[in-house]
Amino acid sequence: MTLPDSLFAEAFTLWGAPTTWLEVVAFVLALWMVFFNIRERHWGWPLAIASSVLYGLLFWRNRLYGDAALQAFFVVVAAWGWAQWLRGVRGDGEPLRVARLDARGRLATLAACALLWPLTGLFLKTFTDTDVPWWDAFPTAVSVVGQFLLGRKYLENWLAWLAVNVVSVGLFAYKGLWLTVLLYALFVVLSGVGWRAWRRKLAAA
Prior knowledge:
By secondary structure, the chain is mainly alpha-helical. The chain has helices spanning about 5, 20-40, 45-60, 65-85, 105-125, 135-150, 155-175, 180-205; strands at about 10-15, 15-20.
């Protein structure tokens, strides 16, 4: 049995759908990643790299090409985010700490999401055989924005992830990836936990 075959071997059946060992390992790594992000610990970034590689394989196999490409993007951005959390600074030279976006930043964030979603959906519809181009495109596009906000420690990253996670629950349920559905349902809750934890840090500062 080759390594890819062993990764995609069935671990158990969940709600009538097979769950692979790859999905199980990615699930565990992703939960630890969010735990470290909430705690503002930089070790979440290498876990993000590992889980993104695994989820990229899983999504590609299930024809979720937008989400698969997003995982490849996450690997690159996670390396950047890790460096930001270790050595990043604000424009004034101060160390990178939790901050809020100003009005201009919030507007730019919304504009980026509004632009990336249809562009991503059009690309997926035109150049891939995905059966859910627009649905796949939304979490792909908003995750790009959320990852940037997380890397720069902006509080609003948790709102971006909340939107991504809610839509992803439905998307992965449609694909029968039930363990990943559970993961993203947990992510919905953890997005709120992260928002409250970072807001408390901001208030304390």
